[in-house]
Structures are given as structure tokens and as C-alpha cells.
């Protein structure tokens, strides 16, 4: 059996004061003299008393906890996001419960239901599939506070996120402005319906009068460095190699860079590489990698503020609002080389 739970009555018995006096003292009521309150606090500490949060939540109708659902905690940008979210919520008096779906839609549904059973006050969710949100729509229709960390303006669910379409567009536009014509893309998101980055890639090519070549698209089937390495191996085995590659995250870009080092290709003279998320490792790679940058702290603060606002709205949520954070391009050595000819051959 576990240790017995210390109750207010136990403190009352130890100090000789009534249960009501003990309760008021521990809630820092000005009605209790400081000398009495100090004796009660010392007794509570000696008995290792902890407030009954379940009982408090029944009174306040708040547990002061938030559920955070991510797809994969090993992705550096999501690890950074999780830390920022936890700190921002703590500043507002909330504790954070974490769960990962591990890119499994069924697991995502399970952890969301688990958080509901824990009576969390609201959830921040990075969904595995950005446009398959029926299970989240059900919660929204029930006035449950939810903010997504990826956004579809037509989804009818609150979201605060990076504009992934615009980020991909800017990255590929940077490459076309350098003169690249054959531009590869490594992206695992599109096969599961998260097409924002691919759409931005295609739009940048179109604006530069470059036709989309499906042979230059490779699905790494994951987001890690080693997945980027083998995806780059597939891409560079094409008869007509690309002169540049856009990677959907910086881990893939690091893997692509490692492939070039192993095979003796000069970056950016023979192949340019640009990533997405601007993680610390990209800046400090052997050849620093250009990347799409966005303000994680801004995303965090806006998402947390919106969620807290939804929680305080009570039983009637306001109309959903989607906030898209504008990205920028950080240009480093991996793309900042000599301008290539429109034929795609290095000068």
C-alpha cells in the first residue's frame, strides 16, 4: 500500500486549530493572523502536506494543466517548441502534459482522448495530417479549447503557426535567383497530405518559368539526418543531377550535406543545399546551411495566449482564428556561392 494522504484534519489535530482555520491559512487568507498562519504552514511542511488538486479543480472547474501533442519529439524544432511552450505556460500558471503521436494517426487520437480523460483545460496540437482533422473538429464543436500548431485557414480550428508554403516558396526562390534550374526536393510530408512545402516549391519554380519535374522529388520516409543522407543518394543517382536541393527540414539538409562530403561534391559550387527551421546544428555544420527561419518564441507566445483566451471564454468559444507567422531566409555558405547559368551548369 502507498503512503496515507495527509488531510487538513491531520494538520488541525497537530496544531489544535479548526479545519476551517487551517484551510484559510494555507490559502493565505488575510483573516488569519500571521503568527497562526506561520504555525500552520510549518505543521503542513512537517507532515509533507500537498493540496488536493482534484478537489480544487472540482470547485474551480480548472485543472491548470494543458496537453501538448507533438508528432515526434526527436525533431529538433519540435523539441525546442516543447520547451518554449512549457516555459510560457508555466509563466501563466499552467502545468504541461506531453505526448507524442510518433506520426501515427491512431496514436494521435488515443493521446488526445487520454488528455481529455485527465481533464486538461485545453490542448496545443501538432497534427500528423494537417487536413484530416475530423477528430479535432468534434472537440471544437463541443467548445473544447484547442489551438493547432500548423494551420489551414479553412479548417475552422484556431491555429498559430509558420507559413510553410511561404517558407518553401522563399527558399526555392532564393535558389532560382542564384540561377539554379534543376532543383530537387526532399520532403516526407507530401505523401501523407501535408502539401504546403511542396506547393511552395512548385510555385517558386513556376514563377521562374521552370517546369516541375517529378523525378526531382524524393520522399525520405522520415525526418532524420540518416533519412536525408539516403534520400540524397536517391536524388543524386538521377541521370541528370540537380544543382540544388531544398530539404523540408534541417535534419534532412544535414544528411544531404553529409552525402556530399562522402562523395566529394563541393557545396555550394557543385550542389547547393537549403533547409527549413534554422536549427542550431544547421548554423554550425561543416558547411553552414542556409535555412528558412521563423520566430519560435513568437509562435509559442501567440499560441499560448490564444489558448488561455479560449479557456477563459468558458462554454462559448469565439470564432476560430488562424495566425500565420511570416518566415525569412537565412543565407549561409551552403547556397551563397557563384551564380550558375540557366542551363544548371556551374560556372
TrEMBL record:
Keywords: DNA-binding, Transcription, Transcription regulation
PROSITE patterns noted in UniProt: HTH_LACI_2
A Pfam family that the UniProt record links to this protein: Peripla_BP_3
Domain of life of the native organism: Bacteria
Molecular-function GO term, any one: DNA-binding transcription factor activity
Signal peptide limits: none
Domain HTH lacI-type as annotated: residue spans: 6-60
InterPro entries xrefs: HTH_LacI, LacI/GalR-like_sensor, Lambda_DNA-bd_dom_sf, Peripla_BP_I
Protein name as annotated: Transcriptional regulator
Taxonomic path: Bacteria, Pseudomonadati, Pseudomonadota, Alphaproteobacteria, Hyphomicrobiales
